Amino acid sequence: MKPLMLQGHERAITQIKYNREGDLLFSSAKDVTPNVWYSLNGERLGTYNGHTGAVWCIDVDWKTTKFLSGAADNTLRLWDVATGVEIGNISSNSAVRTCSFSYSADLASYSTDQAMKQECEIFVVDARDDESFKSSAPILKMAVPDSKVTSLIWGTLDHTIITGHEDGAITQWDLRTGKSIESVKDHQGSINDMQKNRQGTMFVTASKDNTAKLFDVDDLSVHKVYVTERPVNSASLSPIYDHVVLGGGQEAMDVTTTAAQAGKFDARFFHVIFEEEFARVKGHFGPINSLAFHPDGESFSTGGEDGFIRVQSFDPSYKDFRFDY
Amino acid sequence: MKMHNKDMIKSSWADQVEDQSEKTTLPQPKVEQHGNSKIITEYRWNKDDKKEKVVRTYKIERRLVSKTIAERKTWPKFGDSRNDKPGPNTSTTIPAEEIQMQFMSGKDGDKVEENPLDKLKNVNMNIKCRNCGGEHWSFSCHLKGTGLVIEDKKLVPEKVIEPEKNTSTNRPYIPPSAREGATNTAGKRDPYGRGYDEVPAIRIENLSESTSEADLSELVSKFGQVARIFLASNKITGACKGYAFVNFKAKVDAERAIKGLHGYGYDHLILNVGWSTNNYNKTSY
User: Which of A47, A260, A278 is the closest to B79 by Cβ?
Assistant: First the structure.
């Protein structure tokens, strides 16, 4: 495969996300401007200028009209995808760590960091139009006293929110009561990323404890465990095959203090059911911070601590590959 | 006479070319289209004020996409990209080098991370630790860094727990094929029955630090078919540690290589070449 390298960021990539059809790829980094790219040829469509801090999280709605970004400048901003114009801005008391549209994108939820005396909170806001977004009174506000939220997704039929926490816990929140329904602690380290499968019935976590696990969206039971020897920063399920790709590597802070062993920054492909690794793709020279399968399953993208995004289209050898069992 | 000379120099063709290049403007960019490919030729000044020709070849693909995607394709660029021309901007989009997906064969995915020194262990060599005299490399000695050195052999603990060894005794290593109960069909001459042990390795010493495996293979392949080359190199920097082992397919070639390379000046050093195994055919050299 001949990857495309997208060099639009000056600092480490924090998150990349495809829109529903997969023709656009959104990216954010620890610099202040999220970017949007055409995924087919790597052409940059535009940048969303306005943030003044590292952008931690991004999301795009179902129709690719609205784009959400949360940053360390204590704001959550809503943008018009097509023009890059800011159409909403909510201030919070600490950095916005995670954000996510509901399936319909009528609602959006975000969480803020624990800082000084400010505790971690999850908010649900109305994202239907500018007016409701700007009215800044959240529909729901849930305090998270113990461990801060590091990843967030919406549950089945937008009835629940599922959050992954710094201590490895995963909690399901009921939106009607604003209380937690269920909480499991199957990970020992911070949950860096959660991504649902195409059907929305399961999600895969990526944790600092060197594992990725496959959970059921509704009862949070663990189905499968994928073990590596480095922290996992992101994991994504293939929409067409029983494959899951894991990205990670040594923690950025340890890279300079340990021997530079090659091959720890690969994207690693596991079989979802047999939990076995079957392929690797090299490329980055820093840990992979975020990765995503294209919604058609024919390519995938990775964003690394090195500031590059790599768009890789699979060769026929990948499609011909049959897992031996 | 002098004047004449000056005129001669001024009208030299080299000056003319240079003068011209300073005066002329850049040619117009050219766009050619042949079937499915589009070739854009542009000219620009590089940092030495020299003209540069940039040729880019694009493949044009037609795809049937949904209306929404087609509409998004027509959106004007915005933000930092608003001044970009149609098509990928070379400052933000770079085609990367061709890479291959590496498929794991077999069940064990960790086989990829193989210690190159493990290969050496299979060769019939006497590995002896300088610290404690155990059968491991000095750098992997359990006493390394503790400051303890055992002078008296009796002080060596009988049951040393070695992470890479199954046996806890100090017996010399016996490969599985030569152990009791193993079926050895390779004949009696060679108790180990290994392909490259039949022709012992030659040891090349006093190599320079910059020697690479390719250099070495170029050097030794003159003498015959090479079965295997091991170049000891620093794991981190990749620099050569100064010695290497080479297995030839035929013993004659190995002997010729020793004769030919011993005392041979390579890089700036004089090579020292001999048989690697201390118990094999020492008389020949």
Answer: A47
ipTM of the complex: 0.80
Cβ partners under 8 Å of residue A184, min gap 6: A169, A170, A220, A221, A222
Report the C-alpha gap between A197 and A244 in whole angstroms.
10
For tokens 């100064």, name the residue. B242
Segment A275-302, tens digit of pLDDT = 999 998 988 888 999 999 999 999 999 9
As assigned by CATH, the class of the A198-324 domain is mainly beta
CB-CB under 8 Å, A6 with B113:
no
Tokens encoding A170: 């995963």
The structure tokens 């002098």 sit at B2
Pairing between β-strand A202-207 and β-strand A191-196 as defined by DSSP bridges: antiparallel
Starting at the edge strand found earlier in the chain, the sheet holding B37-45 runs: B30-34, B37-45, B51-59
A9-145 matches A198-324 in fold: yes
Give whole-number Cα distances, A108 to A78, A105, A138, A165, A175, in Å: 10, 6, 10, 19, 12
Quote the CA–CA distance of A260 and B181 in Å, as a whole number. Answer: 43
Instruction: Specify the 3-state DSSP secondary structure of B258.
Output: helix
Main-chain dihedrals φ then ψ at residue A151, nearest 5 degrees: -155, 155
What is the C-alpha to C-alpha distance for residues B74 and B89, in angstroms, rounded to an integer? 16
Q: What span, in angstroms and rounded, lies between the C-alpha atoms of B114 and A169?
A: 35
B112 touches chain A (CB under 8 A): yes
Output A129 or A109, whichever has higher pLDDT. A109
Q: Are strands B226-233 and B240-248 parallel, antiparallel or unpaired?
A: antiparallel
Residues 6+ apart with CB under 8 A from B174: none
Cβ separation B95–A259 shorter than 8 A? no
* Residue B98 contacts A, CB cutoff 8 Å: yes
Q: What is the pLDDT of residues A129-141, one digit of tens each?
A: 777 777 768 888 9
Contacts of B88 (CB under 8 A, 6+ apart): A41, A42, A43, A44
Is 3.90.950.10 the CATH number for B201-275?
no
Domain ranges of chain B: 26-91, 201-275
- For chain A, the structural domain boundaries read 9-145, 198-324
Q: Which of A208, A111, A215 is nearest to A155 (CA)?
A: A215
Q: Is B59 on the interface with A (CB under 8 A)?
A: no
Interfacial A residues in 59-98 facing B (CB < 8 Å): 63-64, 82-84
How would residue B169 be classed by pLDDT, with cut points 50, 70 and 90?
Answer: low
Six-digit token pair at B42? 């542009």
Q: Which CATH class is domain A9-145?
A: mainly beta
Q: Mark residue B48 as left, alpha or beta (left: phi above 0; alpha: psi -120 to 50; beta: remaining).
A: alpha
Convert the pLDDT of each residue in B104-147 to its tens digit. Answer: 765 444 444 445 555 555 555 667 777 777 777 777 776 665 55
Confidence band for A271, pLDDT divided at 50, 70 and 90: very high
CB–CB of B92 and A6 under 8 A?
A: yes
Q: Which residues in A lie closer than 8 A to residue B38 (C-beta atoms)?
A: none
CA distance A146 to A143: 9
